[in-house]
Write a structure and sequence with these properties.
Length: 160
């Protein structure tokens, strides 16, 4: 599936079994996402909260946003999210990869990552990096990511 400029939505999974119901899962690259829904999703995996204002700026300035959701009572329920920042030429970095615990283990994390990588490749970006929490290193390795290639180590600077 090619997801270039999907500002509306595409059907990703038809009739997924969820709590005795059949639901459809959709994907969109629309940046206009509900920040409260994103905060709720991040809360569901125990991430530390970030100021809304900054999250809004980060999303606006991201190269690519991918959201996964289902529709309940005419509302979009956000269940997956990932984004990438980029110099639009050589490099991109993937951030905030998350799938709601109720929907983990169903292949959605892999779909999110595959779609981000496909989109970045389409933009001719050849170096894709990310920072993996220890418990998800194998998840990313299975997707083809290498830890510290050529001995390169990530380095961080924080304000003192
Ligand atoms: C990491 C995360 C996005 C994976 O999403 P998911 O929808 O559960 O993953 P999938 O079902 O697509 O799994 C794809 C494959 O990765 C494997 N996998 C999933 N999570 C894994 C983990 N933590 N460690 C190792 N392998 C993992 C699955 O077993 C599956 O393998 P298979 O293809 O051989 O069957 C999800 O667990 C999550 O949101 N975690 C909390 C937030 C987080 O830690 N994000 C990463 C921050 S760096």
């Amino acid at each position: 599936m090619n997801i270039r400029n999907i500002e509306d939505k595409v059907l990703l999974i038809n009739q997924l079994n969820y709590r005795g119901n059949k639901i459809n899962i959709y994907l969109t690259t629309n940046k206009n996402i509900n920040l409260y829904a994103l905060e709720k999703l991040c809360d569901s995996v125990g991430w530390v909260r970030r100021p809304f204002k900054k999250v809004k700026i980060a999303i606006e300035h991201s190269f690519l946003i991918i959201s996964l959701f289902h529709i309940k009572d005419n509302s979009n329920i956000l269940i997956g999210f990932a984004r990438a920042t980029s110099d639009h030429a050589f490099n991109a970095t993937i951030w905030d990869v998350v799938v709601h615990p109720d929907f983990q283990g169903k292949g959605l994390g892999k779909i999110l990552m595959d779609q981000i990588i496909q989109q970045l490749k389409y933009a001719d970006i050849t170096t894709i990096t990310l920072f993996a929490d220890p418990q998800v290193i194998m998840f990313y390795k299975n997707l083809g990511f290498l830890a510290d290639p050529d001995g390169i180590k990530g380095m961080f600077w924080y304000p003192h």
